[in-house]
Amino acid sequence: MDRSSLYLISLASAVSLATSFLAALGEARLDVYVSVFTLIYLAFKALFRPATRTVDFLEAALVASFSIIVALRIMEVLAGR
Amino acid sequence: MAVDRNAVYGSALALFGLVLALGSYLLLGSVPLTALGIGMVVVGAAWALTPVQPVPERSVAELVESSCSNVEAFLELLGASGRAVYVPSRVGVVAYVPLNGSSAPLSYVAENPDKPVVRVGGSLGVVVVPPRPRLVSHNPGPPEGDLESALRQVMVEESGVAESVRAVVSGDAVVVEVRRPRIEVGHPRFRLVMGSLASCIAAQAVAAATSRPVTIVDESREGDRLVTRLRLLDWTGAAST
User: Which structural domain, as residue segments, surrounds residue A74?
Assistant: First the structure.
């Protein structure tokens, strides 16, 4: 099995497992799911180093979402003081 | 962007995930189902972004092997036995093979990469186009400290000739450790002059990244690792053979 196929199968399995696990825990915050997906995507990309045909807009979108989520959480904490 | 199997299937999965996420969020208000949809978008987009291997790995190996056999025959005919010098030029990295004791100035070789026979003063040599990946071209490369990234990009990510690669730079010496080289060339003259295929590509990558001529000093196999010692040469001098 080539590296790209292994990367895609591993990514799909990890995302499915994370979704099932968080859903089983009763997690109802969407930002938690998105954060976990972002971390999984970045970790697998660093691990497998797959070839990409163009600019990785998915990585940019996920990192942007993650940054917004973290910023909102920090603002919540600061506002709560 | 060429549309291939991965792009079609990946886009379809991402689109389905998007519809599922929006439907689940707006109509059902279910967070786990929405997350499942987002997960499908992530996997689908990753799938769409991953190119299909254009040519099977075994076919590539056979193509490289057959092209190396031509170089082997050429070097055998000329009786070449000196180590090649990998010289970055405007047409990419070329291999200069000195045929007698003396060598032409390497800057002359770089300026005249189209000349197959180089005869300057008493020196005689030939210019051979080695098997080279797409990324090995004479562009201003990264600094020497980033040589390992350049090698990884060429040998692991672009051409896939090795599983991993490490490099240590010490002055003009570069030690490259290639783990599990995937394509081997058995031709003895090719190996004597150009080095093993992995070393040949590593030398080209170093030459392109540093914009300096490079020669292979020696190489040794230790299990599934290939350790190659390279030397960066000066433009002003000639290759010592």
Answer: 3-80
Cβ-defined contact of A33 to B157 (cutoff 8 Å)? no
The shortest CB-CB distance from A23 to any of B32, B49, B156 is to B32
User: Residue B49 is nearest to which of A29, A34, A58, comparing CB atoms?
Assistant: A58
Tell me what pLDDT residue B54 has: 54
Both tokens assigned to B217: 């000093």
Query: Identity (one letter) of the amino acid at B84?
Result: A
Q: Per residue in A51-75, is it b (16+ CB within 10 Å) or e — as a string?
A: ebeeebebbeebeebbeebeeeeee
Provide φ and ψ at A64, rounded to 5°: -65, -45
Contacts of B4 (CB under 8 A, 6+ apart): B51, B52
Q: Dihedral of CA A69/A71/A74/A80: which sign?
A: negative
- ipTM, two decimals, is 0.91
Q: Are B197 and B127 in contact (CB under 8 A)?
A: no
Q: How many structural domains are present in chain A?
A: 1
Provide the pLDDT for residue B1. Answer: 46
| Higher pLDDT pick, B27 / B120 | B27
pTM value is 0.64
Annotated domain spans of chain B: 5-49, 57-232
